[in-house]
Task: structure prediction
Amino acid sequence: KAGVTQTPRYLIKTRGQQVTLSCSPISGHRSVSWYQQTPGQGLQFLFEYFSETQRNKGNFPGRFSGRQFSNSRSEMNVSTLELGDSALYLCASSADRQNTEAFFGQGTRLTVV
Amino acid sequence: AQSVTQPDIHITVSEGASLELRCNYSYGATPYLFWYVQSPGQGLQLLLKYFSGDTLVQGIKGFEAEFKRSQSSFNLRKPSVHWSDAAEYFCAVGVNYKLSFGAGTTVTVRA
Result:
């Protein structure tokens, strides 16, 4: 069974641009969550989706958005990139409605210059 | 709001020695509790989890953790560390479909 797949693995963008990151969950998993990891702030929750519905959202500005498709694949978008958005973005999927066991992808390393 | 504290930023341990990583959480009820490990440049791998029941839980790679409600703690242990255990370890609380992580503990293993 394939794990959580995140694409691309690495990305370099310029300030002011926008970026879209993709996450394919483990087959059969309906919950997808996104996290941002930085040296200064650690791991922070962005949002969680289950069956295309956002059930929880972290404390991030509106420039950060996400969505989930009917096949459970998810994307997150960051508009008007800032230097501080440079981070490792991790996606996790879970099989159950209660999100009791999250499996993480290897992440997308975003560098904003 | 729930919070997770990992008091030790960095721990160095000799190969073959025992390891204990501390974790304290703050939450009104008993949340779901997790330990994850992250190797450089990699995602997070789940070591073990606690929801309810037996307070000593076994995980992968020879790790175990003990939940102590009175101390709001969920400490991770391994009796004999291998060089491959060098990594960063995160304790997490699961509430409302999200994980709240501690700051992490980096483990260095010396020969």
